[in-house]
Specification:
CATH class of the domain at 142-275: Mainly Alpha
Helix content: 40-55%
CATH architecture of the domain at 142-275: Orthogonal Bundle
Number of helices: 20
Structural class: alpha/beta
Radius of gyration: 22 Å
Length: about 450
């Protein structure tokens, strides 16, 4: 294990890059021959900066009414809060409260709040079925022809397919680390249904680059598009693209009029699938009990994770004077292979936390060593469905208790008995989700 905290002594403008480069080379998540200059320039020009200040500035700028009216348009008034929500720099309850504070009638914020509900829903599914984040929850539709590819095609990765829209989405993903939700769905649908690439391959590609990528929201959304966690596959067609981009890509596309997504939904369904009929909503997912443990007496050590990268972590709120540790887990680095821009965003969030120690190594070993060094009897962490965090807690349970602290409640899910579909879930919790924090 290695203490990386010393890298934070660099100039604030460069320390994120230097620590991220150190992790990439140290952990071999990318070739040591990678040239960072071009990527770094894109990061410098990015509208996304990690940390609480940037998050709050973006939160203050949201317009719930305009969001509800234009969110489906690529140029619409979407919030772009997802990178900070994913990492717990902002909580769902905090964003909900900010949205409700800006409207006269709560119904004017219902579209934005329901979108927050998707993230809450995916996290609950992840907690209940962590193994399904990489496995089909339901059988896929029967395809008309072709075999499934288990690698990302080079022309897709480099944005050289010849389709103006797809190439633009690919370049935007790799250069900025963010895509509009429609762009994500279009790219995923084309990759899975037209190019016949396994959804797991696409999900891994997104996890590498998206600043807001987490296995729950990302992978279950890919399954929703693929039709392995939805009533039918999501199909991308040109009419939908032109409507929500105002014809941005098609006017100059070299294959306009003869591209893969020409035709009606019925025509594309017949072309792509032997059987893509509407399935009944029979899938049932039983919610799991929240992770609870009673704190023992004595000093706490606060453990920040990828789900709680900042001063708003409920573990820090409960123990504001406790020593704080974050650990870059080699298992996570190897699994998601995060890009330089993802790592820089994470480091920028971490540098907002006064007194934090940043380590690379096995979390169980680091936490054990640091707890002994500071005289802590237990570890406190923000509640998360992440199997890596829960696995570490299980490993330490006999020697160093790991105590979860819940986030501020976004909704009352106590009456939810089935997570098989978002619509059923939202029907149970939407009323409570639309209530501001008392």
């Amino acid at each position: 294990m290695e203490n990386l905290t010393g890298w934070l002594l660099d100039d604030p403008e460069t320390r994120g890059r230097r620590l991220a480069e150190r992790l990439i080379v140290h952990s071999d998540v990318a070739s040591p021959a990678v040239t960072f200059a071009a990527t770094w320039q894109a990061i410098v020009e990015s509208p996304f900066r990690g940390g609480r200040q940037a998050a709050v500035e973006r939160l203050r700028a949201i317009d719930p009414i305009a969001y509800g009216r234009s969110r489906n348009h690529v140029g619409g008034e979407v919030t772009r809060l997802s990178p900070w929500l994913r990492h717990g720099v902002l909580s769902l309850a905090e964003v909900r409260d900010a949205a409700l504070a800006q409207v006269r009638d709560r119904s004017q914020a219902d579209k934005l709040v329901s979108e927050l509900g998707w993230r809450d829903y995916w996290q609950r599914v992840y907690a209940a079925r962590p193994e399904a984040v990489w496995d089909d929850l339901e059988p896929p539709a029967a395809v008309a022809n072709g075999t499934v590819c288990d690698r990302l095609p080079d022309d897709v990765a480099t944005g050289a397919t010849g389709m103006a829209c797809i190439d633009a989405f690919s370049r935007k993903l790799t250069q900025t680390g963010w895509l509009h939700n429609h762009e994500r769905m279009w790219l995923a649908s084309w990759l899975v249904h037209t190019r016949r690439v396994a959804w797991q391959v696409g999900a891994a590609w997104f996890l590498e680059h998206l600043l807001d990528a987490d296995p729950a929201s990302n992978n279950f959304s890919w399954q929703w598009v693929a039709g392995t966690f939805s009533n039918k596959p999501y199909i991308f067609n040109r009419e939908n693209l032109e409507r929500y981009t105002d014809g941005l890509h098609c006017s100059d596309c070299p294959v306009a009029g003869r591209c893969d997504v020409e035709g009606s939904y019925d025509e594309l369904t017949d072309k792509l699938f032997a059987d893509a009929g509407h399935r009944s909503e029979r899938l049932r997912i039983q919610p799991t009990a929240l992770w609870h443990a009673d704190p023992p007496p004595g000093r706490s050590l606060v453990w920040l994770t990828l789900d709680s990268l900042g001063v708003e972590s409920p573990a820090l709120h409960r123990h504001p004077s406790a020593p704080i540790v974050f650990v870059f887990d080699p298992a996570w680095l190897d699994q998601e292979r995060p890009s330089l821009k993802r790592l820089v965003f994470i480091v920028e969030c971490l540098t907002d936390v006064p007194g934090i120690e940043i380590w690379h190594g096995d979390p169980a070993a680091v936490l054990t060593a640091r707890a002994a060094a500071v005289g802590a009897s237990h570890v406190c962490v923000a509640t998360t469905p992440c199997p890596l965090v829960r696995g570490t807690a299980d490993r330490l349970s006999g020697s160093l208790p790991v105590v979860p602290v819940d986030w501020p409640a976004f909704c009352d899910a106590s009456h939810v008995t089935d997570l098989g579909r978002f619509s059923r879930y939202w029907n149970k919790v939407s009323k409570s989700a639309m209530q501001p924090t008392a």
